[in-house]
Structure formats: C-alpha cells, structure tokens
Amino acid sequence: MCTFDTKKDAMQNRAIVEHMQPQPEGGAYPIKRVVKDWVTVTADVFGDGHDEVNAVILYRFGKQKKWKEAPMRALGNDAWQGAFQVEEEGMAYFTVLAWVDHPLDWYLGIGKKIAAGVEVEVELQMGADWLDALSKKAKGPAAKAMTEAAEVFRNANRRAEAIELAVSSELLHWIHAYPLRENPTQHEPMQAVRVEDAKASFSSWYEFFPRSAAKHPGQHGTFKDCARALSFVKEMGFDVLYFPPIHPIGTQHRKGKNNSTEAQSGEPGSPWAIGSSLGGHKAVHPELGTEADFLNLVEKAKSMEIDVAMDIAFQASQDHPYVKEHPEWFKWRPDGTVQYAENPPKKYQDVLPFHFETHAWKSLWEELKSIVLYWADRGIRIFRVDNPHTKPFVFWEWLIAEVQRKHPRTIFLSEAFTRPKIMARLARIGFTQSYTYFTWRNHKQEIIQYMEELTKSELREYFRPNFWPNTPDILPYNLQNQGQAACAIRIALAATLSSNYGMYGPVYDLLETKPYPGKEEYWDSEKYEIRVWDWETQTPFRRFIKGLNCIRKTQPALQDTYNITFCETDQEMLLAYYKQTGESRVLVVMNLDPHYMQSGHVRLPYGAFNFEGRSVEVKDLITEEMYRWGGEWNYVELNPERYPCHIFSLQPIS
Amino acid sequence: MCTFDTKKDAMQNRAIVEHMQPQPEGGAYPIKRVVKDWVTVTADVFGDGHDEVNAVILYRFGKQKKWKEAPMRALGNDAWQGAFQVEEEGMAYFTVLAWVDHPLDWYLGIGKKIAAGVEVEVELQMGADWLDALSKKAKGPAAKAMTEAAEVFRNANRRAEAIELAVSSELLHWIHAYPLRENPTQHEPMQAVRVEDAKASFSSWYEFFPRSAAKHPGQHGTFKDCARALSFVKEMGFDVLYFPPIHPIGTQHRKGKNNSTEAQSGEPGSPWAIGSSLGGHKAVHPELGTEADFLNLVEKAKSMEIDVAMDIAFQASQDHPYVKEHPEWFKWRPDGTVQYAENPPKKYQDVLPFHFETHAWKSLWEELKSIVLYWADRGIRIFRVDNPHTKPFVFWEWLIAEVQRKHPRTIFLSEAFTRPKIMARLARIGFTQSYTYFTWRNHKQEIIQYMEELTKSELREYFRPNFWPNTPDILPYNLQNQGQAACAIRIALAATLSSNYGMYGPVYDLLETKPYPGKEEYWDSEKYEIRVWDWETQTPFRRFIKGLNCIRKTQPALQDTYNITFCETDQEMLLAYYKQTGESRVLVVMNLDPHYMQSGHVRLPYGAFNFEGRSVEVKDLITEEMYRWGGEWNYVELNPERYPCHIFSLQPIS
C-alpha cells in the first residue's frame, strides 16, 4: 500500500518489473557462477496503456558503485530476457531497469502512420522535441546530428527529408543509444552473484588415507610417504587430493577393524574420532609427521596444480582436549555422560557431538571458526565438511561467510547425504559444492530424472553437484563384488555427467569391491585400519580413469554440469547425453549393463546443435576411432569387456 | 549473511521455515478471502540433525497483537500443512512458527528404546526434567499431574509405572498442549489476507442503461423509470445492478448511432464521454433525473438486497469542465490538441485521456480519488472500473487503498480486457474482481484449461474472476445471430463455473444477437442510442436465467469458484464439472453444441467426493427430474432445444 508519503519518483513509475529470475528465495542468498560465466536474466516487463516500454539489465562487480548495462529483448507475453558475463571473482549484483520509452513509442507510431499514408505534421513537431531531449544526453557528432534532424522536422519546406529521417534506422539507433528514461522502475531487491574461480565448478577429486601411503605392511604412512601417491594422483589427472582428518585420534571407545566397538591393542582407530592428549583439530597426528611435513606436501601439491583438501569434522573423541577444557560445549546427561554421535542407522561410539545449543555457543562457534581459519591461513583452500546437516544452518552460514571474508577463494564441499530440502538449503546458505544422490542413481530414467532436477530446476543457480561413485563410508550395492566394467560405468558417468566429481581410491582404481556383509560398506575399511597400496602399476582401469580426466581437461563441454541434453536411444540399457560449450561438442553413450554387450541407435539432438541435414564427424575420444554419421539416428555397440562408453567429439562437416 | 551482531535468538534458531505458501510475490500484497473461508498454509519445515521439529500457523485479525495458533502436520518430504478460518472482515495476518521440539524428541526416543527392550534409566531422569519444564507452562490439575509424573520418573522403585507413563498418550498430549519452544523460528515476512464480506466472491450482476428504462420509444429513461427494471432484476435473482456512467455527456465529437463519428441532432451520445457544461464525474445527467433521484433508487435497490454498481471511467469529453479548469491534467500536442483515447483497435474520438505523467499529477490523482469518495460517501459500495490498464498501476494501488481505508467494504471490478500479466497485476494490487477471457473460451479444452489456470495456479489467491458472456462492448462471434440455445449455454457456463458472473441485458435475456457486420459488437448498440425494453414478459429464457440464479442461491457449491473438479466425458461436446461445499454437491453437465442433441457418458469424480461403491441420487435442479446412478460412468442426453445442461444435485445413498 502506498500513500503520498512515498517519494515522488516511485509514484510516477509506470513501468512494472516483476518475477525477475534467477532470484531463488526472493534474493535472500547469492546465486553462484564462475568467472566468464553468463547470467541470463528474465523478467516480466510491461506498462499501463499502450506506450512502448524498454528494459535493460543493470549489473556491477564488487564495490563498484556504477552500474553497467546489458540489453534485454521481449520474448512475448511480456517476458523479457538478456544476459551479462561475470568478469571477475567476488560478488556481482544485478537487477532490471524498465521505463516507458516515449521516443521509441513516438518512432513506432509515426512509422505506422507514414506507412498508412496518414498526415504526420503534429508528429514531426513532437519528434523534433524528442530529438532535442535525446541530443542533450549525447556528445559530439551524434548530438549535432540529432539537433540537425530536429531542425529538419521543424522545417515545413523539408517534409520529404523529414519523413525519410523519421523512419530511418539511424533515428532508432539514437533512441536506443541515448535513452530517455523518465521515472524508470528498478526491480527490488537486486540479486547477488557469488563469482568464483573455475575450480569451484570444475574439479576432479581423489581421496585417500595418508596413513596408507607407506610402502610396507605394518608401517604407518607419513606425509613424506605421500610423495609417491601424489605423483600417482598427478599422473592420473586429478586436481584435488582430499585427505580424511589428519589430527590425533582418540583412544577411548576407539573403533577396531571392521567397525568393531572394541579396538585391539595397536589398532589405529578412525581418523574421524578427532582429538587426544596429543592435541585436537589444530594438531597433526604425530605418526603422519609434523605440521611442517603436511604443509610441505600441500606446497608440493600446489606446484603440481593440485589442491590438498582437508576434512572438517566438527566432533570430538572422548579424549579430545575440549572435553576437559570446555565441558560447556557438550551436552551432559543426568548420568554424567555425553550421548555419542549418530547418523542413523550409523553409530559413532568413538565420537561426541558438540552441543550447539549450549549457553556458551558463542565461544564454541568462535573456536570452530578458528579451526578453519587456522588451516586456511596455512594455505588450505578446500574443505570437505563432514555431516554439515547435523549442525545448525545458521552456524554454517556465519562460518562460511566469515572464512570467505578473509579467504575469498575458499571452497566448502557439503557432505550431507540427507533429505533433499536440507541438502538444498546447505548449498543455498554457502556451501560451494555438494555430495549428491548420484551414488544411488543407476537406471536410465533415474539418472535422467535426477540430472533434470539438478540442472533444469532452481537448484542450478546455487547447488553445485559433486558426483562420487564411492566414499570410505559407502560401497553401494551396485558395485559390490563387481568387476571392472561396473566400476568403469560408474566413474565414467560421474566424470561426464558432472563437472565436479571424485572417487575414493585406491580401493576404487584397484577394483576392490568386497562389502561388509549386508551393508553398503567396505570390508576391511581403511576407516579402521592401515592398508598398503600399489601406486605404480598402470592397470587398464587406471588408464581408463586417466583417459577420462584427460578428456575432461581438453573438452570444455565436460567442464560444465548444466549444459546437458539427454538424447533418445532405442535401448533401455543405452544412456546418451550431449554437452556443448563453444566449439566443444561431446556426445556420451553409456552401456549401463556391466555384463553384456548392448547395441542400439542413438538420436543426435539436432535441436541442440543445429546440425540438421549435415554429416557429422564422430571421434571416440577414448579409442580415437573415427566415424562419419549422415543421419539423425545412428548405430552404436558397446562391449563392457572393452569400454562401457563412447565419449564422442562431434564435428559438423559442411 | 549474518554476523554476531544479529540478536542471539536468531543465531540459535535451529528450525528452518521455507517456502511458506500462499505468499505470492514474496508477501508484497495481501491474498484475498471472504469471511468464514479457510486459509490452507504449507511450508517446508525442518531442522539440523535428528531432533524432532514441530510447527504451528500463527494468525491474527485486524489490530490484534496476540497471535492465535492452528496446528500443522507433516505431509512428507519436510512439507507441513495446516489451516485456519478467517472470522471477520478486515485484514488478517499469518505466518509459520517452527521449533526443535526436545520433549517430543525425548518422547519418541524413549518409546523406541522401551519397545526395543533397551535400558532407559538415563532417559527417565531426562524425562523428569522435561516434565518439570512443561509443568511450568501449565496450571491447575495438568501442572500437578506433570509434577507427579516427574516424581514417578525419578523414583527407582516405581519403574513399571514410569515406563507405562513414558509411552502414554497423556504424556504426548502434555507435550503438544504445553509446548516448550526454545529459540523458535518465525517465518518472515508474514502474509496479509484481505477478508471481505461474501459479496466480494459471490455476486450476480445485471447491467443496463438507465436511459433505456422508459416505457415508450422516443422517451429518455429516468431513475424513476428504473423502478420497473429494478423489480425485474430482483425477480430474476440478480444482486448487483450495474449502470454505465450516469454523468452529463459531452457534446463535442459526440458519437452517433452505431459508433458514427458524427452524431445527428438529438442523438444522446455515449455515456462514457463524460462531462459537459452541465458538470463532470460528480454530476448526474439531468435527463436521468437528479442526484436525489439516483440515491433514492440506490436506497430502494438496497432494500431489495441489490447493490447499485457505478461505472468509474477516468476520462473526459472535450467539454468536461476539467479541460478548461485544469488544462495541466491533459497532454497537449504542438498543434494545441489532445490525442483522443484509444484501446486498439477501438477509437474513442469523443473521449480525452488524462495525462497521468503531468507535473500536476498530485492534484489530478487527488481529484480522481475525490470522485470515488464522492459516490462512496453517498452509499455506493461497488464500482466497475473502465479500462484500468490504461492508467498507472501505482495510481490504482494508492486509490483503492485510500478508498477502502474510509470505506472498507468497497468492491472494485477491473474491466481490463488486456494481456494476462497486466490483468493479474491489477488484481494483485487491489481490484476485488476482474473481467476475464471467459467471453472467448468456447471449446471444452479451452474452458478446462482456463479454469485450471484461474483456480489451480497462484491466481486463485488474489484474482477473483467475474464471468460475462457479453458486455455493451462485446457481442462475441459465438453468440452472433444465434438463438436461445447458444445464449443459454454461455449464461449457464458463466453462472456455474464462476461464483461471480454477470450479463449485459436486456439484449441478452431478450435474445438480441445482431452484430455490427464484421465486428464483435452489437448492431444498434445502446452505447449510442436509447432503446426501450419489455421488462414484464416472462419468456422461457428469462425463466431459465431466473432458475440459474435461484440454484446459485440455494447451492453453496456454486458460491465458490475454486472448488471445481472437471469430470471425464466420452463426448467432446459434453463438458462436465463437479463442485462441492459442505453437503452441497453439484454436478454440471453442459452440451456445448447449441444445434444438436448430444449424448454420452460422464464419469463421477469418486476421488473428489468419496462415493466409491455407493449409489447416488441425482436430482436435476432445473427440471426437478430424479435419477439414481449406481456406477462410476453414467449416461446423459441433452437436447439444446429444451435445456443445454443438467445441474445435478448429488446425494449419496448409504
């Protein structure tokens, strides 16, 4: 409701801007982009009456005060659209400005009258006035040309010249270039865009336990030992090396082999049971080496263009120093115990949760923030956050903002395998990337439906998926006791469906798929024991994964998650999808059946790439085999014994 | 983004409330209801971790400070729903409150442990503490009972009793009745609801030109003559009598018969060309009588439970007093003229638009507001607004709010036959009812699709349709040179699809359907000449219309637009829909073909009324014929020569 108290300008605004998009949650949170991305903006724009309206996108970066402008065009039914490119990291802002465009209205009106042979004497006089007004906004030759045109309009002896001028494209150009915006309407609120560097949206993760980096069974791996693994990861083409927690491990209620609740002497315990007399979240487990060793490794990785990602698990073992020093950060029960952590049906008897509702919440929150800052100050920019959905949303919103204020390029991956609205909210309030349900999406329709949800709904604006076929916690049923083909399908899907993906190795690349009976968990899980791995042997499967990473690096189409178009196939086991970014055109055809060769036809998405009527040169980027396809439907045959998929590069032949 | 500056409470809120609905446009405008309506509220509600959350609707009326509460229940996927009834006219407000419900969490937890035979000693101690906390919120016997229960929990000698108590429904009742809400989250912003009296959503309009109320050709009808017409309108069962403008008519550029641009001497001109030397919008056309005559008629109508609706047409004839007294309210062109009004392709040479962008906009707006207040002060509560889409939206927002501040029950009908988003916005910013595209929706799929848009989309919250088969401006092609059957179909559709409907008579009830050749307009339109009508003869068609109004009054199901469910038929020409309100169950089956008898089968919407397996007594409310239907699909046969539709009342037989 408005009264005359409202400032005059708003009361005179005749143009309406409604339903500006993207603006999830009414603008409460930034949407996400990386540098050089485009933001396509739509809005409903209209005015009262029959006057022409016009609209532009206003956008600006960082602390700039001055708006830049991008044109918008009418799509029909009063919807308008435009786009702008985000040029630099940091925050960008945009909104839509619309106004009743009187000169444009005049131009279109006189044009119709001239075409109909109607008298336009009065209109020419009005046009002269508009030209005078426009010329005041221009300088130099343009201003002069407009003033001269106004003179022509006013001169009754130059009517033929005036009429030619009145319908000229030059005049239309002036109207657009020097717009007269009386009482323009600026959409409120504006929308913020968090613009990050490319890694936020294109990353390839490899997870391993540094304590399993030693050469010989019985040895505790060290950061120094990790050099071999690091070379392997580099060779394989990954660019994020993610370590489970590297802190001292609790001794009380320590877990034993295969999640036994009673550890035997000498068993190392779960790295997620953080803290002992040797220190807490800011300390390094002595058997791994020193903090300096760790930071040396981080530096070495960085020189190889690999980021080391740390694990942020805000919980404590029973002998974490916090328990004695800050009992007020835990929730004590009448019997003097603290209920151990659970993520039903999983039980973590070796871990105590923090009590976020404590009266001492402020000191707890500050301490937790100081942990992230401790490591960020030492050069860590990527954090994988353990179970963020078991801590308050507002805590994360605050912590991420605080950390990114000091270290703007920090990336947080949300490990929230929970209900969909909770996962979405965590992404919205600040997490850079998110684990997903990909791990359990196996059938063709499941995969298509989930990808449509991630890439075509509002989620695309803020939820960046990171696809994992496995984690130390999850060996999904579809991979249990399976061979190379099943593992190849799942890793190839992850690597080509999502621009962010990762794997927990080397169990994965060495094809270890033995489950804990009846559970989606690994047998002899590294969570509870130290393993020793072969980092050297170049197996065919490792070569396949290396190939995937290589293709991802050379094909910009695979560096985007949202550019996907699913293609028809005539075979339930064949999944096909097309991605295009610039001249990079990739068609993936996957045989979802790990046991049998499948063949069928794939329909090229002519609608997506405008190839209709042309032949296409098709190159399999895995095998380097070349084909020429002349029609819309094309035959494919995939033997999982060889490769489960084609990853085709497409080139139209003119 | 939040910092510690935020008040402690918000930083400790663990419950999340998102996507509260209905809240079109993020709460910028009130939704609409009438007294006794229910508002169903949904929201996504969840918390972090595994603690139980709970939620209620908070609502209040008018200037009450204290919220009332209505319960919400979880629907699955973190969606919650509840409802409250709006009890009084005026503004109501609602929001959703959610909190982590620790006692409920405890109750469900101990219940599971007891069921599993697990030790609950610690839980009983915690339960005693919760009971103590709850008891402080209760009084009298409940408080005492809770204190006693806490004692039982603490007494190690009363374990059997304690365990029985711990799983009792009484304990659950206490938890819900005396909720412990620590750091609850209240959704912002709240949503306003404009609650009006029933007429805003249930009205039957009859439009006629009072100057055509005389008995004999050649006479100018008067307000006194309108007594006959008023009796007719009452007898027919309408409850709004809407007059085109009753003000002095301009003489310059007066329109003649059939929209001729040159009136002959003695021609009366269009009533929408408002203003002459005899006065403007606050004056009454002398040939109709005096203002006192008009107000007497209004009073008489009111005594018959009929509201007289006035026409608000903010425009001026060339000899309106405003033109000389306030030239600053018009847009003068270089040749000293004002461009006449247009609503393309229609031209109104006899009408000048106001210039809403004038520097003197404030005095113009105030004057226009004073016109509405002038008549509202004299007892008029319903205004049909002519072409509101050609005046600024913000002007209407302001004017309607100002008028309703003084006269809260004022109803504004928006006559905006324009683009959909413009129509929607006018409704959103304050218009009570709106003309629609019904006039041009003829085929079965068109009607179903349009009704779904009006009743199942967000429009249902603020856009109240008013269905008209014709207006003085519009004789749609489907009625031109048609007989009774076509007119009966359209009026029956209007009267049963929409709770607000109207007709322009008596051309309609006397079946005058001769068009201006090639246009959707009447030949010999009353807009440009005075007619004389038979108000007495009770024709079969008039009896049919009277019957429709009678059925609408006795069947609450037809007093609601949003309760519609379309039913399957096996015949393209048969349209069927079901409406239910309480025990009023109405099934309409319409033969859309005015020329031929059509027969087919209609499927009862078992899903909508839970009749499955029962016989239904079916009574045609037009013919009083009774049937008994035993199955889901039932035969109907409609002869347009007799009646185009069945309007069945349904009664299940147990």
Q: How would you describe the overall organization of this protein?
A:
- The structure is a homodimer of 654-residue chains.
- Chain A is an alpha+beta fold.
- Chain A is built from 16 helices and 28 strands.
- In chain A, strands 1, 2, 3, 4, 5, 6, 7, 8 and 9 form a 9-stranded mixed β-sheet that branches. A 7-stranded parallel β-sheet of chain A has the order 19-18-17-12-11-10-20.
- In chain A, helix 2 runs antiparallel to helix 3, helix 10 packs parallel to helix 11 and helix 14 packs parallel to helix 15.
- The interface between A and B is large, with 53 and 53 residues.
Largest sheet of chain A: 9 strands, mixed
Radius of gyration of chain A: 31 Å
Uncertain runs of chain A with pLDDT below 50, 5 residues or more? 1-8
Shape field of chain A: globular
Mean pLDDT of chain A: 95
Oligomer: homodimer
Relative strand content of chain A:
15-25%
Overall SS class of chain A:
alpha+beta
Topology:
The structure is a homodimer.
Chain A (H helix, E strand, L loop, with lengths): L7 H4 L3 E7 L9 E4 L3 E10 L5 E9 L6 E9 L2 E7 L4 E11 L1 H14 L5 H15 L4 H15 L4 H8 L2 H9 L7 E2 L4 E6 L6 E5 L18 H11 L3 E3 L48 H13 L3 E6 L2 E2 L4 H5 L15 E3 L2 E3 L3 E2 L7 H17 L4 E5 L6 H14 L4 E5 L4 H9 L4 E2 L9 H13 L27 H14 L2 E5 L35 H15 L9 E4 L6 E8 L2 E8 L6 E6 L2 H4 L5 E6 L5 E4 L3 E6 L6 E9 L1
Parallel strand pairs in A: 2-9, 10-11, 10-20, 11-12, 12-17, 17-18, 18-19
Antiparallel strand pairs in A: 1-3, 3-6, 4-5, 4-7, 5-6, 7-8, 7-9, 13-16, 14-15, 21-22, 22-23, 23-28, 24-27, 25-26, 25-28
Helix pairs in contact in A: 2-3, 3-4, 10-11, 14-15
